[in-house]
Amino acid sequence: MNGPFLLTMIWVVPFITALACLPIRTDDHRSIKVISLFGTLINLLFVIILTFKFIGVSAANPVADGAASSLFHFTYKVSWFKMMNIEYNIGVDAISVLMMLLTAIVIFCGVLASWNVKKQAKEFFILLNVLVAGVYGVFVSIDLFTFFLFYEIAVLPMYLLIGLWGTGKKEYASMKLTLMLVAGSAFILAGILALYFESGLNSFDLQVLSQHHFSASFQHWVFPLIFLGFGVLGAIFPFHTWSPDGHASAPTAVSMLHAGVLMKLGGYGCLRVGMYLLPEGAQMWMGFFLILVTINVLYGAFGAIRQTDLKYITAYSSVSHCGLVLFGFTALTFTGIKGGVLQMISHGLMTALFFCLIGMIYGRTHTRTVSEMGGLMKVMPFLSVAYVIVGLAGLGLPGLSGFVAEANVFVGAFANPNTINRVCTVLAVLSIVVTAVYVLRAVNGLVNGPIKEQFATLTDASLLEKVPVTILLFCLFAMGILPGWIVELVNNAVHPIYNNLMR
What region holds the NADH:ubiquinone oxidoreductase chain 4 N-terminal domain (predicted)? Predict the structure, then answer.
């Protein structure tokens, strides 16, 4: 099974899975879920095979520190719109592969966590698979037009998934999310078209465009368009307000996928398109964006500390932690950019587990308000212990993935000798204290104290529910204890991007 075929199958399989659900009777929920689970399992196996193949190829073709251009592996291209030279052009580097692995793990766990979905289950899993196909397509695309096409496929199903299967203010949340993300997409499309026409190369190929030197004046006005456009999906301040409402209203699997993977498309696009193709624009604007993402980190943490709803606590926490992704990028140092990529992976695992556990707890207690809970360790020890562990990962405890990522972000940011960088780094580091407060307060309110009478007969996680929780816990510990192979892969992918920035 060669690399290009694997890359194609990874985004095609979710579409096939969605099509396979179409002829199933609407009331045959079990068959629909089995098909979806089988499809996600096949994709997980494909991505694991791809990861091992990529590690082998990377070991045989190491990226030199002085490399000027990104080295994509398993590349393949076919022209499909010759007039504008738009191509089905695919390939991956280490960042793409790791993000695809994260996506495969999260969606497999998300389907298992959604086993109790009964309302319009057929339509739910079809839309979920279409969304995932779009996410995979983004990570394999080298042609910017195809990249944008898959990006839209990944974003737009969120409107229906939240609006139809969500809770609370779901119509308001889905509409707000869609309008803000579509506005961000308009900025991205304008930036991509500007790159295409300004280059004069008649190409959307990322590798071709990276070899063209765009004028400084052009980069200075196009870079903020692209960075802000992708930044909206990454919940950059002040365009973050869709995120808490969207996460709080979304069903469990959608929250897992949205916070765990979809928001990372924002950071991925900022790095892959904005910073890589427009290095002079990045150098000019990063001081401004550094201030915005510092506000992100602090505002999200202080916002979380004021919440009483478990989903809103996690949603504001995501604003803060996704801010750390962009904070690492805006440091403009090798270690900072590497830390931002590691934070995308760490936060994806962590927040997926948070929302998975919250969904299981809510399914039993029928409340997400911390003050209405208490003593759940007595009746739900497995779910309670898992929540404690992921909470500790959130505050950066050594031995868990959060420590590896945040250490690189903060060290890399402080390595930039610019005074504003160091002041912002100190402020961002202080957010760890605030994070500890809201995490430990939520954990204490959830698992300690006397058990409420109405919760005394609740049951712990079933065997089926323990599977996704165990997988995500294993990944958190694996990245925290043995991060070497991930760090090495990220190093190789960041070198060409960093060298492009510094040239």
Answer: 68-132
